[in-house]
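Troubleshooting entry. Yesterday's outputs looked truncated, so today I'm pasting the complete records for two proteins to confirm everything comes through intact. If either block looks cut off, that's the bug. Protein one:
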Amino acid sequence: METLTLEQKFHGHLTQTTMKDTDYKDKNVYWFAFSGAQCPICGHHDWCMVNVTGTKVICMRSDDEKAPQVANGRLFHLDSQAVEFTGAEQQEFNNTVDFAEPKILDTVNRLVLATHKLSEKHREGLLRRGLTEEEIALHGSRGFGSVVPGAFPDLKSQRNDGFLKMYSTWEALFQRLGLPKTAWQGVPGFSQKHADFKKQLFKDKNTQETVLREEGSLDYPVFESPTDGMLIPYYNENNQVLGFQVRVDHQSIIAKNVENSPKLDKGTKRTIIINSDTREYRIEQSYYGRDPRVVAQGKIKDEKPIVASINGVSKCSFNPHFGGKYFWVSSAKKHLGANGKMPLQVAYNPTVAQLKPNDEKLKQYIKQPKQIWLTEGGLKALVATAKLSSNYVLPEGTGTDFLAVAGVSSYRKFLPMLKKLNATSVVVAFDMDFQANVQVSQNLKKLVNELHEQGYKVQVAYWLNKKGIDDALVAGEEIKLRNLFDEEEKRKMQEVKAKGLPATSVLPTLLPKKH
């Protein structure tokens, strides 16, 4: 099955990965990553992978324990004819190491943040998102960061007895702080590279002397992000940083469902070129291999269909599709990279979020019965807990802590953490467009039912205008809380509806403070 057919089957763009599919004797057959196409398991458009025949999917967000774990995800067969998947995980990941202990992860990740300071551009983005300067700085050395090209080189040179010698900046930093040189091992984002150096003359910029670099080689650790952007820390229940997601500065944009009306003549070719940074597109047309010329251009605002007129006699239409905004900082496919399950976000209310991991107050807080909100997206949870805590009038017993997973299909990750945090009730607050996505809606229903079966009081949050709970709280929307298992509440809703009033008018409502 060719890539084009795969893209038709999964309704979007796919990109070839470096992970080989060992079902095939041809070692040049690789898995494809969803880069606009939709994963049939979780419903998302990125991160997950599909094999070349479209019969197997590795879903990176699923926590279905019945599905075998492969390459940091779960393997699903899409038809009964699929051959047994063997070998690829071992072949690609046999030189990785398990995640380090939380204390080590936290220590090294704080060094990552110290060497990758939050840029002014990203700070302004957080302010626009609704956070205050105090809320941005809330976690101190465990706060936000930025991945900027060249900000922290992995290798540097130093003069030694008149010669230049290369050294690892990370190992030097670890040693200076009294940590082992191998402290990076087991930390997501870190892996090992090898470099060979030939004898070469360099001119010292300060003294203008000519210096000889020694011949040699070096194995050295590197920290790599899948893209430039803002680092979003993921915390555990002890306020330790276990890993990062990176929020891209510019989403990739691809053209889907391209149609030409009337159909193109033989020998005519049209190409849609999109600049994801500026969101500008242009349509180029060529005849029988001649140099193409621009026949239409414009600006992309959203994912609404675009219809471009070509010379007033024909049309070219397409649907812009935006790629993922968030990507895990992972090294699971690299030499001595870290291999393990990515964390969920524990976003405490500001008072608790400031506590250090070994603070006795934090230990006591964990033991207290509490209400916890559940949502999707690590940054969303951090914004939501800040705004709910500061901007709303909260009845006694209302919780302001949030847990967040990367996708609603990973809802099972909530369950052990809810027990750790001694939760007694939960508020499910996923994006309001969940009803339009069948896969997300089904997973949400499973989550609510499982929480109810495990004895939690379960409420679902509703609001009117914004998509996510974070934006709704920033905007000061009223938040309605509905208990789907409360028969008395259901009866009251039916009564007011029969009177021609909104059924939700009887629901408990969180109101913003009056300013």
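Protein two, checking that the full record survives here as well:
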Amino acid sequence: MLIIVDKKMPEEAKQKLGLYGELLELQTSGIVYPSISGHPDIFFCQAENGLIVALDLPDEYIQTLKSKKIKFVTGKHKLGSVYPFTVSYNAVLGRKFLIHNLDHTDPVIADLTSGKTSIHTEQGYTRCNLISLGEEYFITSDQGIQRSLKQNGLDCTYFSPQNIYLQGFKHGFLGGTCGILNKILFICGSLNHYEWADDFRKIVNGFGYVITELTEDVLFDVGSIIFVRKIID
């Protein structure tokens, strides 16, 4: 198991995740703005059977993916330093759906999901804002995403992004604090600092997921935690 994380993730969180697999710590410079320069969900889009990686992902990470026998394809869009040129790969893919701002989705993602239902959201940072608990239930920190999903017959609960840390911004996004492996939802930080923790726990636990808090600090938007299985594990 390879676990892709932001290099800026707290060491305590990295140590706990290291019990579940090998960490690939992401750090870039001069591609996107600094707050998200190590965010996995900016440079990688996770599909059922592998990854779609940004065209300008630094070569050292491409070589690591190859050496670790990770299945991936390369996108067509280079990332940019400002929105919306930062969101080409920040989509959510499931067995049935592609959820993203479809005006900015990388063409490779669009081609690979041509048989799925495409759901448009105005929010380009879709993965940052969305937690998928299966194929038909979601948690989001963006009310526009919530409306889009409900219009397409999907259940989605909104939780405020307040009190989620992201350097240089008033707040981060809830989906960016999380990653899911099997039925474990890992969250970077402690829900003890989150005003809506009880309702969040109730929903997540109600769908059969166990929450593992990676630190005792406030929730930290680390650009999602991506778990990807090797071709030969």
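Both blocks look complete. Sanity check on protein two: The CA atoms of residues 48 and 170 lie 33 Å apart.
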